[in-house]
Structure formats: C-alpha cells, structure tokens
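URGENT: need a sanity check before tomorrow's submission.

F., can you look over the Catechol 2,3-dioxygenase-like lactoylglutathione lyase family enzyme record below? I want to be sure the sequence and structure line up before it goes out.
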Amino acid sequence: MFDHISIGVKDLERARRFYDAALAPLGYERLSNSDTMIGYGPETVGLWVMQVEQPVVADMRSGLHFCFVAPDEAAVDAFHAAAVASGGTDNGEPGVRPDYGRFYYAAFIIDPDGYRLEAYFHKGEL
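Structure tokens as predicted:
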C-alpha cells in the first residue's frame, strides 16, 4: 500500500545514530544520506528521516506507530537491545503478543524524538 513514510526530527545526527543501530538487526540499512535527510530500507528507501524545524509532537495516546518486519525472533531481540542502547526507550520487551495472535513476536521502542516503533516476526502459521 505505501511506497514510503517520512518523519521529521530535530536532531538528524542523533536520529542517524539511533536508526543505524536499531534497524541493522532487521536487515535495513541507510541507503540515502545528506545533510538534511536520511533514508532506510532493505533495497530501496521505505523510511525517510528528515531534519525539520517543527517535528510532529509525539503523542503516546494517538495510536500512531511504525512497525518493521523482522526476519526472525533473534532480530526482534537485537532490534530492542540496539534501540535501547542507542537512546531509545523500552515500550515493551520482546515476546509473544497473544492479543495480536499466538505467533506474533514483537518488541516496542520509543525513539529519541518520541516516535513509537515496533519490530515484529510472525513465528508460525497464520
């Protein structure tokens, strides 16, 4: 459905360090790099991170979050660990989420700008 999403941040260098570390375990890398914008994806950019004057104000009650597909459970675990070590805040440790499905393995993070992120792996049959 979506080709890409873009988010605005106040400090692009801080976001670069965070997203480089957090997305690497999922198989996503920085594919585009400039003074005002960076882009991540597996082969083409799917996430643009831009330095802007007025980023959207984070709202934990908005329901907005971004979910990244992980290749396996270990990648979800590594995403969570790398994100926390790189300035993110834990918003749900790795584990099965029975409310989402008995095979739904996920971890949740809040990035340094307040965006809610998830990494997920579907570990069984649908």
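My own read: Strands lie at 5-9, 29-33, 37-41, 47-51, 66-69, 89-96, 104-110, 116-122. Residues 73-85 form the longest helix (13 residues). If you see anything odd, call me.
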